[in-house]
Structures are given as C-alpha cells and as structure tokens.
C-alpha cells in the first residue's frame, strides 16, 4: 500500500503517467500486515522509496537540462577557460516544491478513524492553518493533503477520488472538505456539539476545565457567540450561581475579563475552603443569590458574639444549625428567639441601634477583607416595576433641601439612594466596610460600595434618621427599605397607598403617597424651540389666510340621475346660538369660504359642541348625501398603515388646520352646498364638513401631494400626517422634505395639534414606538369607565370601540359572544351573568393588551390555527413575536362540519384574513389536527375541500402538525372557556412546569403587562440529540444512510424514525422527561395504553 500511495500522488500533473510506468517496472512489494506496528526500519524504507520515486520523476527534466547546456557550450565562439565542474542544481516542479514546503510544517497524519469526530475536524483545521501560512494555491491543496492520510483514511480517499472523477488535480479543496466532513464529521455530530454547547454549565468542573470545554465547543456555535458581548454573556451564564452573580455585578467587557474574575474568585475559595463549605453543590441549584446568607461572611466573627454563643450551645447539645428547622418569622435557620423586625441589636439585644453600630462591639484587629460581599435585595428599581407592584408606596419627600422621588418598599432589604442624586446634591459619601451585592427583580446584580450617614428625612414634621447606601438606580432618588421601616415602626397600607408610623413613645403619624406627589406640568412648546420646524413659520399660521387657489383636485358632487333640488326649513335656535351663528357667518364671509346664494338647494344649520367647549357650525347635509353618488376612492386600512413603521424610532405628527376648507368645490357644484339660516341663504365655495365624499376626495388630494414619500417615511390618513424615521439625522431630512412640500402646495397646519421629535406617538387610536404598536391608554380608560349597557344600541357602541382593537385581544369572538347574541334580531334584552362576565373580561383584556410587533418585510410567517365547536382561532407570528390575533364564532352551517373540515376552515380563515401579509411569502401553518398534513396529497376530497384546495394552492405554505399542548395560543382562541388569568389559580403546578421547561421572563422597558407567552417545546430536539449516544440507534441510522434500514427513516429535523414515530434512546433522563410530559403536566393527559409505544 505505501508505494502505491506515494506513486499515485507524487507525480502531480504531467508526471503522473511516467511515475506509474516506472512503478510497474519495479518488483511488487511484499504484503504487509496493516495491524503490525511500524518500526524505525519501516520508516526509513518508506523515506528511501519516496526519494527514489522523486529522482525517477525528475530524471527526464535533468537529462533535458544537461543536453541544453551541452548544446550551448558547443556553439560558443570562444571556448571558456577551463574551470572546475559545478553540480547542476535539481529543478523541482511546482507540485514538488509545494509538497516540500508543506512537509516543513510537520503536519500530522490522519488514520481515518471514526471514533473521535472532533479529532478529524481538528486535523483538517490544522491542515488549513498550514495552507494559510504557506499561501498554498488552491489547485495544490488536495495533492499535498492526501499524502498524510493513513490506513482507513487512504481507503476512504481512493473511493472518494473515484466518485469525484478520478483526477486528483481537478478536485477542488471545497469538494474534498465537503466529502471529508460528510464522512468523518457529519451534520448530526455538529448538531450534537452545538446542543452540548448550548447546555454547557460549569457544574462540578473547575473554572479552568469549564473554560477549556467552552473554547472547544464554541467553535461549533458561531451564530451563538457571534461577537465578544454574546461570547461573554454565554460564558457568564454557564458559571455556577455563586460565581455568576459576582461576575455579573463586576460587568466584564470581554470573555477574558470574565475568566479572570472567575479564576480569582475560585482561587480565593481554594485558599479558604470554609467559604465554599456552606454553598453546597452548584449543580441544578435554582435558589436566588439573596437566599444564601452564608455564601461569604461579612466580617470575622468573635467568640463573644451571639451567633458563636448559640453555635457552641448547639454543638454541646449534639446538633448543628443545618439540623434545625427554618424560622417561621425570618425564614432563616438560627438558635434562640428570632430578633428579626424587633428593632433591637443582634449583638447586645438592646434597642436603638444595629449590630454594626453596637457600642459593645469588640475592637477588630483583623482588617475587613476587601473581597467580602454582603447580600441584599431590592424589589423595584424602575417606576414600571413599582407601578406593577401592590406592596409599595411612592411619593416625594424633602431631603437636604431637595425634593426626592421616594419609594417605600418593605421587600427591599436595605435603604438606597441613587448615585445620580448624590452627585446632583453633592452629598458626602464614605466607603462601606464590605461590598453589598444587591439582586434586582430582573435578575441583575448591582454592587453598593458607598453609603451616606447621619441624614434625616422629614415626614409630617417628624425628623427620622436614615442611612442610605449608594446604588445605580434608574427612576427613584431614594428607596426606604425594611431596615428603615422596621426601625421607625412603619406599616405600609397598600390599599390606601400610605405609610403609617407608630413610634413607641409619641403619637402616630402617616405619609400619604398620592398627596405628596408633585404635579409638574411640562412647559408649553413654542414654534421657535422646535428644530427644523422653526424654519417654516408660514406653514403654521394662526388662521387660514383666506380663499386658497385652485388645486389639482376639486371637490365634485355627482347626483343620481333624475334628482331634483332639495330644500329644508331651517332649525329653530336659542338666542345664544343665533348670536354665535351671526359671528361665524361673518367670519366665513370675510375669509371667502361662503357667499350669498340663490340656489334652489337648501340644508338646515345646527351647532355641535367641540372638545374645548366652543360651538361648531354644522350643516345638515343628510338629504343631499342620500342622492349623491358615492365616491369609491379607497381609504387606507389602519393596520396597513402601521405595517410601514417597522424599524422606526423617531416620529413627528402634523395636523392640518381646517383641512376641508383648504380644498375648493367645483364651480358647477357650489349651488348644491347651499344652506338656509335666520340671516340669509349662503353656499360654500370650499369643501364643508358633513358632505358624504369629503374624506375620500381629501384623501385623494393628500396622496397626490405626498405620493413621492408614501410608504417610505410618510403615512397619511385624510388630514393626519405621520413622519417616521430610523435615526434623528434621517428624521431631520424627512421633516425638511415634508414641510417644503406642504409649503409648495400652500397647505397649512395647526401647530398646537402637531408633535415633533417623538420616541412614542399616539396615532389613530394607537401608541406607536420602536417596540411596536399598542393600544392608546386614553381609549383603554374610556373602556374601563364604560357603564353597563342597558340597551342594544349601547352594546353596539361598546363592541364597536373594543372591536377596533380586536387584533390585540386573544379569543375576542368567544369572549364577546354573549354580548353579540343580545344584538341579534328577536333576542330579548336580558343582562345575564354571562353578559356581565363578558363585559368585564373585555375591559380587562384591553388593559392587559400586549405590544404587537410590526412585520419587517422579511416574510417567514408562522400561523397557529385551531378550531372547536365554539369558533375558529389563529395567531400570526414572525420571528417569534405576535403580529396579530384573529378569531370568529362559527356560522350556523359550520357547526355541522366534521372535525377535519372544521380544522381546515381555521386554516382558510387565517389565509383569507391575513392575505395582505401572506400572499407571495413562505408560510408555515401549524395545526393540532394531524390529518391536515396530508391535505395536499389526499386522494379523495369532498366538494368543500376541493374549493378550499384551490384557495390554499395560491399560497406558498406548508401545513405541519403541532400537538395540542404546544399549540396553546390558537387553542385558547378557539376552545378554552377560561382565559389566561385563570392560570393564576394554579400557581404551584405552573411554576413547577416553568422550572422544568427552564422558562424565564425577561424584564425590559416595555410597561405593558405580560399577556401572552409563546412556548417552544424542546423535548423532541433533546430526544434527537440523545439518539446519537445510543449505539443501537446509531447503527440503525447508518443502515438508513446506506439504504438498508427497512422500517427506519430520518425526518427533516434529523431524527431517527420507526414507522413514522420518533425513536426514544436508552437515556434515563430523556425517558423520565417524556413520561413527565405525558403524566405530570396540567396541560396534557395520558393518551391511553394503546397510544403508548
């Protein structure tokens, strides 16, 4: 084998045939046992054969060179002086040179073993590293590399070379790598390595071992650790909890910094093992940092201390602290009477001070250890967290002559002051004896290293001492925690939002949170203070300058054929209304908006109250509108407008002044607008409010004016203009373009109704921000204050308002069903308990409505659909975020559908309602009805299914099966009688499921409550990954790959299947989790013995 291998690869290009011929002339090498050990003599023989082969290959070149040299010498006119003969240097071919250079780097050989896929991958990586350093050409890489294959590696290469054409000089390096990885480092192995990295935790490993494993496995997850920040976060997340909290608190910028901190902490533990003794095993540890009071002692405990005295008493009694039950008051394990909340010193048991300030405290000769950490906790550090909590009170208190925003929090272990407030007031700080590690609700750990002493807080003319620890906080200046509340005998009344103080000596007093909050009004914004906008004062006049010039679009009134003029008598008015009518008619005449008329048409006049209390003139054009041909110019859909806002972070809103009066009426149609009043007969020259086609015609004008900007950075709905941009610099340019366009078209805006440079804007009843689209809080307030309907009309009004936001409400149709039934003809109005429940639940749903994402144009939509005998429900998602909910009740004939058709109806309903998103995009549709997977290949279809098949074929969709448990959102929309709030009654089982599924809630700046949780099951991926560790299943997988597996197959997600079912490996952990899913979860039940395989 070795001579054949060397001959085949040594010749390279051109010399391959010659070397093969010479090889055939040599005697055949004796057979060698491949399992025999290789000796030094064998290596020397192999080297000699290689040299002989090289000389034989180069012989023709050397002979030609000598002949050429002799010819030149014979043709010379003057014979050269006799000189000593020089040896002719050997001229190597390019292939030989590259091989020689490659060998200088001493590359390792690969024997083709499949026992260690990582070894094969690392070998190929080392070969590529050598190629990079020596700058080896692409066409020489394969010829160099195959020299270093051995044993089974050579056998594999001979087959692969034949499959790739048989000419090694034409095989590219990428082809070689693709075949090599397919054989020795398959996608299954790569996926298993990725899964191992994703699940990597330190556990019982040392920090050095964990870091080595992290480096080894991170090579297989480039997307997970795509940058230094992600790499650092993943490394810290896998550390033991006791190390993780401190490393996070120090905020390492790089992986190297995090490793250095973790190594320092672990070395400190090794130097003093007693500090880690009480910590226990970190594997599977789920407790909070603050529940480990003995992680690191605060100071050196003296023999005379209370703790040491109790420990000696327990030791004498043969018991330890760990054997005692936890205290029912403080939750900790200690001996003797509990002193928590008593306000006495833990050292001398006297009131009036704490243990760290105790006068009997012995002098400590040992300096405090700088690495010692105390444990603390704070319940809320932002206003959003405080508002969501019912156990805190906020208010404003004078501290050192400055008003501070204060949070009273009984669940905060200490009292804190914001570092920003300290700098603002210029307070003097002093270092803490030991660093305090403070854990927050979001899981973040903050460090407090300084404190402020001997300051007082004034409450109801009482001066109370307070010691504040400096902490980086966002929204609060001061947090008064349990240490201060207990010392001052304070109780928090959560319902009344007040703090009551009951001092042992003296009268009680209280602090009212609501009464102390300062209501600071924002200063009024002026035109001159707005960047960019101040350059266009002529666009924002106080009044319209008068009759505006004709435009590209005029308002026309087309009547139905044969319509005669209509005139109605004027309405009677009160004296105050007549006085206001006279004033407004004169203003309209002065501006040229109306003129005296002799038209046969005439509509009555009336007044309507405006929001500001003034009276607005209205013309009752109802009779004219009845005979007017309706203009079908389309108004944009509200949800279509919001779909344009993906990625926008800066917004401006412009509202036109008296918008309809900025558009003139076509001359021939002016008489039709005539109206009759006490003071004469007039007609409008400009478009008036109340005309049936006014919105669509004005929409036509706005589309023409802003046609170059629509769907780029401007959206328009009649007179509302929203400008959106991704950056402030971009927004400045967009504002210039829009305001220039408004100026050029002689349109005018009302500055008091405009808003500029906003991060969050209210538009068309929604709140738009970079986070997405949410419900306008003012509309929610109107819904929550809505009185109980007493008539069918009031129910329709209520359903009309909440229905406007139905895309935010999951299961809307089911919840509203009792109310909608009351609006049907022939149904008596009976307000039942079901109606009251529906009424209140709709209110609550809007209060907790989530922020919906805006589609980003990348496609890849996912639909979850479900159906029941109550209705159809579906959820549209993109990149794991909810875009919209949709649901409806079943029609009467649909209630007779079989289950298969009903589930298919839910799919068709989703495709129809979201066609504007889905048409032309790749869609995945998940349903819990398994037979729908085969809808496209089903041989027999009824007429209804055939009709629906034609509709579904218009979409690029794939119907996939999703178990009912995983399809919880759509299932809730169509089936569940109890909404998500009902899960609160199952706190313990639900929390157990959350822990088992490793679900965490991430706290961000979004202030809305959590209303929907998307759960992605991982059990299937765990089973597939564990299949690679089962020898029997690995053998069956190999048989499938070679075409020998009879009843086995491999699924699209690389799982080994037996007759369509996923194979469960011999793995106790996987089997336990599988059985737990089937038996212990409140969301599923045992399917029966016939379904358990």
UniProtKB/TrEMBL annotation:
Q: Give the top-level enzyme category.
A: transferase
Known CDD domains for this protein?
Answer: retropepsin_like (cd00303), RNase_HI_RT_Ty3 (cd09274), RT_LTR (cd01647)
List the residue ranges of the region (Disordered).
Answer: 1-36, 273-308
Q: Which InterPro entries match?
A: DNA/RNA_pol_sf (IPR043502), Peptidase_aspartic_dom_sf (IPR021109), Retrotrans_gag_dom (IPR005162), Retrovirus_Pol_polyprotein (IPR050951), Rev_trsase/Diguanyl_cyclase (IPR043128), RT_dom (IPR000477), RT_RNaseH (IPR041373), Znf_CCHC (IPR001878)
Q: Which E.C. number(s) belong to this protein?
A: 2.7.7.49
User: Where is the CCHC-type domain positioned along the sequence?
Assistant: 345-360
Keywords on this record? Answer: Endonuclease, Hydrolase, Metal-binding, Nuclease, Nucleotidyltransferase, RNA-directed DNA polymerase, Transferase, Zinc, Zinc-finger
Q: Does the keyword Hydrolase apply?
A: yes
Gene Ontology molecular function terms on file:
endonuclease activity; hydrolase activity; nucleic acid binding; RNA-directed DNA polymerase activity; zinc ion binding
Q: Where is the composition biased (Basic residues)?
A: 1-11
Q: Where is the composition biased (Low complexity)?
A: 19-36
Does this UniProt record's set of keywords contain Manganese? Answer: no
Check the record and name the Pfam families matching this protein. Retrotrans_gag, RT_RNaseH, RVP_2, RVT_1
Instruction: Indicate what this protein is called per its UniProt record.
Output: RNA-directed DNA polymerase
Q: What is the lineage of its organism?
A: Eukaryota, Viridiplantae, Streptophyta, Embryophyta, Tracheophyta
